[in-house]
Amino acid sequence: MTAPKKLFIKTYGCQMNVYDSERMAEALGGQGYVETATPEDADMILLNTCHIREKAAEKVYSELGRFKGLKAENPDLKIGVAGCVAQAEGQEIMRRQPLVDLVVGPQSYHRLPEMEARTRAGEKALDTDFPEEDKFEALKSRPKAARGPTAFLTVQEGCDKFCAFCVVPYTRGAEVSRPADRILTEARDLVDRGVREITLLGQNVNAYHGAGPDGDMTLAQLIWALDKVDGLERIRFTTSHPNDMSEDLIAAHGDCAKLMPYLHLPVQSGSDKILKRMNRSHTADSYFRLIERIRAARPDILLSGDFIVGFPEETEADFQATMDLVEEVGYGYAYSFKYSTRPGTPAAERAQVDEDVKSERLHRLQGLITRQQRAIQDGMVGREVSVLFEKQGRFDGQMVGKSEYLHAVHVNDAKVDIGALCRVRITGSGSNSLAGEIVAAS
Ligand code: SAH
Ligand code: SF4
Ligand code: F3S
């Protein structure tokens, strides 16, 4: 038997890329590849890239440059670029970096085995199609390897919303939902392999409308179907758009015990003028009313969000409206970014805010967010939470997991198994995690 070939995958960007990387590794598993943790001993290197901000895209070229030495040492080494930069700039990557053998977009990676074979025959392979066939169905070679207790599962892809700043509708294509039966089969398979928590993924996951037994299903209906899967203890979903928070999904947060009390609901800005220019089609006020309804269904829900500062035409007053919104909502987590011009998006053509002004606003917003996050985390001390243990901690005898609110929690109890779900009393709050003591296994 020949020794397995080694595959090194580096993943950038969102959780959907993490899921895709797992699937790409499985697809190449059928070609005799096993994953390796270092590029030095790899026969194939794949960068699964992100195009969302300028800096993310630039990283790809600098990373590729670093592989020059490896390719000189091992001429059989194949180098591939996958993901959203591959989709947006595939031809240019091939032109700019002759080291690259293969470019594959996020909708065509089920063709990787055949593309890999072409590179082995000395050809270059480029595929950035948006094919008709279901790539997940086409990926048959899913090995039954054991898994950790948490997993991602993509249920919806692409986006039709065309926010004026965003590349996703161009890199991932139009919105598509996977049929419910395939998702349920995949979920059961994950549970059989040790998974106890599944995070349903989609660029617009709450717009899910996949085919079910009696017509299209909503995300809430899919969650209720997953609720019946024995052995699956926790369900999460991300990312949601405020306009797609339907009544049944809000109600599920109150009624479905397996659905965790955490919701990532990006609003981007607190200024109605900026929201309009972003093509977001919600207002700050409609967002507040929505949050009231969600909190009425599940009072302890922890909210997180995304914000862009320095979008074209953002004045100090517009920025202040964002600060006010954050004050009013109270986020457990929030991610904030300086607006980054993306080629081909409408906002890239508009008059830009000065870089210094963007940096200063980002600094103020991040200060507020950090204080808020910390206050919410500190407020957990003395409370009892449920923790799903995922791995050993940094120190001997320490185990780390996530609470239902997605806070990292560590306990000093080496007897806890990975995959155990325990009641834990929170005893301390550090900069990035909580400390706790086991009350009971649940
Ligand atoms: N599908 C998700 C998020 C997509 S990208 C959603 O609709 O919420 C993740 C985050 O990146 C966005 O929420 C936004 O805050 C940020 N982002 C997207 N494009 C950006 C750009 N051009 N500049 C800065 N931040 C951006
Ligand atoms: Fe991008 Fe807007 Fe679609 Fe989210 S909703 S992926 S921010 S276009
Ligand atoms: Fe990035 Fe593509 Fe995800 S641009 S954020 S990897 S959808």
From TrEMBL:
Family, similarity comment: Belongs to the methylthiotransferase family. MiaB subfamily.
GO annotations of cellular component type: cytosol
Provide an example Pfam family for this protein: Radical_SAM
Q: What is its main location?
A: cytoplasm
Q: Source organism's superkingdom?
A: Bacteria
Concerning InterPro entries, the annotation shows: Elp3/MiaA/NifB-like_rSAM, Methylthiotransferase, Methylthiotransferase_CS, Methylthiotransferase_N, Methylthiotransferase_N_sf, MiaB_methiolase, rSAM, rSAM_horseshoe
Query: What is the purpose of this protein?
Result: Catalyzes the methylthiolation of N6-(dimethylallyl)adenosine (i(6)A), leading to the formation of 2-methylthio-N6-(dimethylallyl)adenosine (ms(2)i(6)A) at position 37 in tRNAs that read codons beginning with uridine.
Report the GO molecular function annotations.
4 iron, 4 sulfur cluster binding; metal ion binding; tRNA-2-methylthio-N(6)-dimethylallyladenosine(37) synthase activity
Question: What are the names of the required cofactors?
Answer: [4Fe-4S] cluster
Q: Tell me the compartments it is located in.
A: Cytoplasm
Q: Which gene name does the record give?
A: miaB
Question: Could you give the subunit structure recorded for this chain?
Answer: Monomer.
Give the catalytic activity. Answer: 2-thio-N(6)-dimethylallyladenosine(37) in tRNA + S-adenosyl-L-methionine = 2-methylsulfanyl-N(6)-dimethylallyladenosine(37) in tRNA + S-adenosyl-L-homocysteine + H(+); N(6)-dimethylallyladenosine(37) in tRNA + (sulfur carrier)-SH + AH2 + 2 S-adenosyl-L-methionine = 2-methylsulfanyl-N(6)-dimethylallyladenosine(37) in tRNA + (sulfur carrier)-H + 5'-deoxyadenosine + L-methionine + A + S-adenosyl-L-homocysteine + 2 H(+); N(6)-dimethylallyladenosine(37) in tRNA + (sulfur carrier)-SH + AH2 + S-adenosyl-L-methionine = 2-thio-N(6)-dimethylallyladenosine(37) in tRNA + (sulfur carrier)-H + 5'-deoxyadenosine + L-methionine + A + H(+)
Q: What SUPFAM superfamilies does UniProt report for this protein, alphabetically?
A: Radical SAM enzymes
What name goes with this protein? tRNA-2-methylthio-N(6)-dimethylallyladenosine synthase
Source organism of this protein record: Sedimentitalea nanhaiensis
Alphabetical list of Gene3D superfamilies matching this protein: Methylthiotransferase, N-terminal domain, tm_1862 like domain
Domain annotation TRAM: ranges: 378-440
